[in-house]
Write a structure and sequence with these properties.
The protein has 2 domains: 214 residues, no CATH class; 204 residues, no CATH class. 86% of the residues lie in helices and 0% in strands. It contains 17 helices and no strands.
């Protein structure tokens, strides 16, 4: 589900890069991190709420699980509507602050305002990825996400290639696909179903909402901070390499979205299982799951590094057909950036692991250090020493340090949680 959710952005980029233009492609890459921060609200409620709901299920409290589930869906959707209105109004000044000017500014505002109209549905799509797993319906969640992704591809082809709507067509295609993916689960859970969860009349529980936000704060911080850091990356690239640098960074982010989605998807998918056994005090199974998870992540990390190195040229060529002069620089950036995949898996898993154990403080600290300290510091300082290469090296440094911090916490708290 995480992989197909990441493909939404990548599909838009492919169609725009090859059928619209380079400036429009840069516009998507420039504004998407801002939109990503807003959409991550759903991720926060999904991860944090799933931990509470799964714990209630582990304690055999079905009514409480349904009430929590329904309340979280309602609150997150309401926040989505408020942010949609505010984002639409302030899209131009926000984009100006990113450093965009001229046509790049106009294109970014146009894409952002159309895209943000589907923000409430995007938030629901994010959180239902987690809730389908908690409800023991991960396959249905995958089917819905795949259908939404396929609809995005179909709408892109129709609006961009068929109707010639350009950048506006790309934004409309993504917005409609999010509505497909976000609203179908609402209909499913409102009806009688054979899952563990169902939408019922919610009762207000402020403490549960705060706990959900606290539990999911680390994952929200990780994604929101990633988007914030991406904004800084774009600003630095506009300074050191111009619009071409933003285009190359967009290519790196497309691969990073897919590969990170594998780590995030696994960590969150197994998270509700950790929460269940933690609630049931099944320490032997906690230890077994953690051991197997670390082994899988280690194997996947090496595989992703090798795959990224192998994909550097063909992937860059796929997106830069109309800008072959950027190909050497793009391949060079890929070679550096791919080293980060050796460390990002353990950094992501360690944060999600402590969220599943309802230790939002440690999880948030790992995420905070990973992004706001290690990565943000590196992207601001390394370019002064290494130029553009310093920007590409920043993520490698950040993931290495975050993996080290996450490993230290897992060892230090082993006795406390008996895993």
């Amino acid at each position: 589900m995480n992989i197909f959710l990441s493909l939404y952005i990548m599909v838009d980029g492919y169609f725009v890069a090859n059928f619209v233009g380079k400036t429009e492609f840069a516009a998507i890459n420039l504004i998407m991190p801002v939109l990503g921060i807003l959409g991550t609200i759903g991720y926060m409620f999904g991860v944090g709420g799933s931990a509470l709901i799964a714990k209630a299920l582990g304690e055999k409290n079905q009514k409480q699980a349904n009430r929590l589930f329904s309340l979280i869906v309602l609150v997150s959707a309401g926040l989505g509507v408020l942010m949609m209105v505010a984002g639409f109004i302030f899209m131009r000044p926000i984009t100006s602050l990113l450093g965009a000017e001229g046509q790049l500014l106009e294109d970014s505002v146009q894409y952002g305002r159309i895209f943000i109209l589907a923000l409430p549905a995007w938030i629901l799509l994010y959180e239902f990825q987690l809730f389908f797993v908690t409800a023991e319906k991960p396959r249905l969640g995958l089917v819905i996400t795949v259908l939404a992704g396929l609809s995005n591809i179909a709408f892109d082809a129709l609006f961009i290639v068929g109707f010639k709507w350009g950048l506006a067509g790309a934004a409309a295609a993504s917005a409609l696909s999010q509505i497909v993916g976000g609203m179908f689960p609402v209909i499913y859970f409102m009806r009688k179903n054979d899952s563990l969860l169902r939408l019922v009349k919610p009762s207000w529980d402020g403490r549960a909402i705060v706990k959900s936000m606290t539990n999911g704060s680390s994952e929200f911080m990780a994604d929101a901070a990633w988007s914030f850091v991406a904004i800084i990356y774009n600003m630095q690239l506009l300074k050191y390499a111009g619009e071409d640098g933003v285009v190359i960074y967009g290519l790196l982010m497309y691969v990073s979205l897919i590969f990170s989605a594998i780590f995030v998807g696994y960590s969150n998918g197994i998270g509700s299982v950790f929460s269940y056994h933690y609630g049931a005090q099944n320490h032997r199974e906690l230890k077994n799951l953690r051991k197997r998870s670390l082994r899988l992540i280690g194997i996947a990390s090496v595989a992703m590094f090798l795959l990224s190195e192998a994909l550097a040229r063909p992937f860059s060529t796929l997106f830069l057909q109309d800008a072959p002069n950027l190909l050497p620089d793009a391949i060079h950036a890929f070679r550096i950036f791919s080293v980060a995949y050796l460390f990002s898996g353990i950094a992501i898993f360690s944060s999600a692991f402590f969220t599943a154990l309802n230790n939002g403080q440690v999880s948030a600290l790992i995420s905070f250090l990973r992004t706001f300290v290690f990565e943000l510091g590196a992207v601001l300082l390394l370019p002064m020493l290494l130029g553009v290469d310093g920007i590409w090296c920043s993520i490698v440094f950040a993931e290495l340090m975050a993996a080290a911090v996450g490993s230290i916490f897992m060892v230090a708290l082993q006795k406390k949680y008996q895993y």
